[in-house]
Specification:
By secondary structure, the chain is an alpha/beta fold. The chain has 14 helices and twelve strands. Helix 7 links the parallel strand 4 (about 150-155) and strand 5 (about 180-185). It is globular and about 75 Å long.
């Protein structure tokens, strides 16, 4: 791969391994194990496995390695480890990095399962977690201690679209010797500059924009080669959270079109946000690409775009929100995001339903809030669909 290649070229060509047949589309190596020519070769490989050598699919596989190399080239990291799901990536990154007695500072605005790991699982194993308002740098600075091992945050929070200043928080973490772990799903690899902005570990649920077509679960942990191979890989390969070869092939195909899909989705998201802002049946429209978003300048500086996600608060609470959801004819109701189909989610009663009411209130997750993951439908059809649904 040329160092001069831009993101679009890397998303198509980086990491390709061709067999003796010279196939154009990446091969799927559907095998759990590998044959050695001799007993001596088997011993040598277990002692030190080369970059293009494999032992067992839980440890690595040619198709999975192609995906890892390609997404690392795209993100700008030295290496990556592909996982069975996005949550396997979050859990794997944190559990491999931390031990009993460690201290973590985390933003409070997290996806429900991420919050469960930070609130329930890490403390169970003796890790102390301090939560802060992710948008408040003063809270980060006050919470990060000399013995803090890591900071963890979603760069753009789910579902209220609150941004964390990656560069500033990473600088605060590094000043105290802490590792910065960034869940960058909403930003997508297309708009990501997380590594250049200071993140040490970047996590994606590849289920979202990377696949982007509702086909498969997947995740990936990205970082330095030393971090991935000496810290993350031993934990992941022994606990069994690795990605399957078939899933890796799906993700490789997704990367080829991701830039086109995400840019189209973001353009539609901006059009919808502008059309919906000020509607009489909405209390608010939340979209980082709108000047009305309190962190609009940070969004443009950090991502260069508003992204594919927006949120609306339907006036009238749960009952009115449900009327809107049930009246939509193009957009569908589900709990995934980053899909080719526009997906509507009422987070207060689905993805974040387990949160106590005071936490929902603090995070802005009201009964009338609807998270919108913008798809690839015609923008005019979506606008018309939302307007007719709001009339209900």
């Amino acid at each position: 791969m040329s160092k001069d290649w831009q993101k679009g070229t890397r998303a198509v060509h980086a990491g390709t391994r061709r067999s003796q047949y010279g196939e154009v589309s990446e091969a799927i190596f559907m095998t759990q194990g590998f044959v050695y020519d001799t007993a001596e070769q088997a011993e040598t490989r277990f002692e030190a496995c080369g970059d293009d050598e494999f032992i067992y699919a839980r440890y690595g596989n040619p198709t999975v390695k192609m995906f890892e190399d390609r997404i690392a080239a795209l993100e700008g990291t030295e290496d990556a480890f592909a996982t069975a799901s996005g949550m396997a990536a979050v859990n794997g990154a944190l559990m491999s990095l931390l031990k009993a007695g460690d201290h973590v500072v985390s933003s409070r605005a997290l996806f429900g399962s991420c919050l469960y790991i930070a609130e329930e699982i890490l403390p169970r194993f003796g890790v102390e977690v301090t939560f802060v308002d992710g948008s408040d740098l003063a809270q980060w600075e006050a919470a990060i201690r000399p013995d803090t091992s890591a900071v963890f945050f979603e760069s753009l929070s789910n579902p209220a679209l609150e941004l964390v200043d990656i560069e500033a928080v990473c600088a605060l973490a590094h000043a105290k010797g802490a590792v910065a772990v960034c869940d960058n799903v909403f930003a997508t690899p297309v708009y990501s500059n997380a590594v250049a902005q200071g993140a040490d570990i970047v996590i994606y649920s590849t289920t979202k924009h990377i696949d982007g077509q509702g086909r498969a679960l997947g995740g990936v942990i990205l970082g330095t080669r030393e971090m991935i191979r000496n810290t993350v890989e031993p934990y992941m390969k022994h606990t069994g959270g690795s990605m399957s070869p078939f899933t890796a092939w799906i993700m490789l195909k997704g990367l080829e079109t991701m830039r086109l899909r995400v840019r189209e989705q973001s353009a539609t998201a901006l059009r919808l946000a502008r059309a919906l802002e000020g509607h009489e049946n909405l209390s608010r429209v939340i979209y980082p690409g709108l000047p009305s978003h309190p962190q609009h300048d940070l969004a443009l500086r950090q991502m260069g775009d508003g992204g594919t996600m927006l949120a609306i608060e339907v006036a009238g609470g749960k009952e009115a929100a449900y009327r809107f959801l049930n009246a939509c004819k193009v957009a569908i109701i589900s709990n995934n995001l980053g899909d080719a189909k526009t997906i509507l989610t009422p987070p207060a009663f689905t993805t974040h339903q387990r949160l106590p009411q005071d936490q929902k209130d603090a995070l802005g997750i009201t009964p009338g809030l609807v998270r919108i993951s913008v798809g690839l439908e015609d923008a005019g059809d979506l606008e018309e669909d939302f307007m007719q649904a709001l009339s209900h």
